[in-house]
Structure formats: structure tokens, C-alpha cells
Automatic annotation (TrEMBL):
Function: Acetyltransferase implicated in the O-acetylation of Nod factors.
InterPro entries, per the entry: Hexapep (IPR001451), Hexapep_transf_CS (IPR018357), Hexapeptide_acetyltransf (IPR051159), Mac_dom (IPR024688), Trimer_LpxA-like_sf (IPR011004)
Domain Maltose/galactoside acetyltransferase: 6-53
PROSITE patterns the record matches: HEXAPEP_TRANSFERASES
Record's protein name: Nodulation protein L
Organism in which the protein naturally occurs: Vibrio qingdaonensis
Amino acid sequence: MNEFEKMCLGIEYDAYSPEFDILRKRAFDLLQSINQRQFEPARPYVEQLLKQLGENSVVCPPFLCEYGKTISIGENTYINMGVTMLDNAPISIGNNVLVGPSTQFYTPTHSLDYRDRRKWEVQSLPITVEDDVWIGGNVVICQGVTIGARSVIAAGSVVTKDVEPDSLFGGTPAKFIKTLNT
């Protein structure tokens, strides 16, 4: 198992392994190509960058990520401009999802112990967004979170815990507001 695979699984890995430099450079070069284009002209580069990009899905430039190859996006999904995905673990976005501008997905976190932070140690957990979710603009989604199908996250929210399907969540930190009628 290589160091990148270890990182994605959330187990101890060598962050100084040369493979990370290679992966970051590849992603950086593709992001430059993506962010100089709009929509359809950018799509071939987005397809190269991501693990999966579903049919009829759009990733609006500018878009930022660290590796790209851990990000899967389903069909008919719209990722608005200015989205950042720190993808040290898998990020899975379902079908028919709307992601508002400047939304941020954070799979890594650092220790509360300053000695570990001095070593830049990182622990990562995946993020999952199920089908038919609407995420408002300027939302932060933290590591390990699953957002259940058909849910809505209000603009400006910080999602630190799982969201049940068919729910409206909002605030900082995001809290349950009400069940949505489906």
C-alpha cells in the first residue's frame, strides 16, 4: 500500500513521501487548465483531475483541490464557482446535488496537541453528500460528515456532524431546523 492510499484510509502515513509532490503537481497543472476555461471547455481537464465526474455534471471555475483523484461527483450535479475541496480522504458527491459558491469541504484536521501540529500531522476522514442535496453558498463541511439525501444546508453554515435525510440544517455549527416534506 502506498503512502497516498494510507492517507486516504486515515492511517499513519509519511507526509514527506515524494509521491505527494508528484500528485500535487499533477493536480496543480490540471487546475490551471480548468481555471482558465469555462464549463464545457474545462470538462476534459476536470475529468482527468477527478476520480469520477458524472454525466451532465458541471464544475464551475475557479475550483480548488489538493489531489482531485479522491473526489467523485455523480450525475446532474452542479458545483458552483469558488468551491474548495481539501481531499486528503475521499469526497463523494451524489446525483442531482447543488453546491453553492465558495463552499469548502475539509477532510483533514490537525491535533489539538501543539506538539503534533508542529510536525504537521494530519488525520483525515471522508465526506459524503448523498443524492438530491442542496448546499447553500459559503458552507463549510468538516471531515467525517455525511449529508443525507434530499437535505438542505443553509448558506453560511458549518456542518460538523452528520445530517439526516430530508432535513434542513443551518447555523454555526449547523443544527437541525426542520424535517422537509418529500
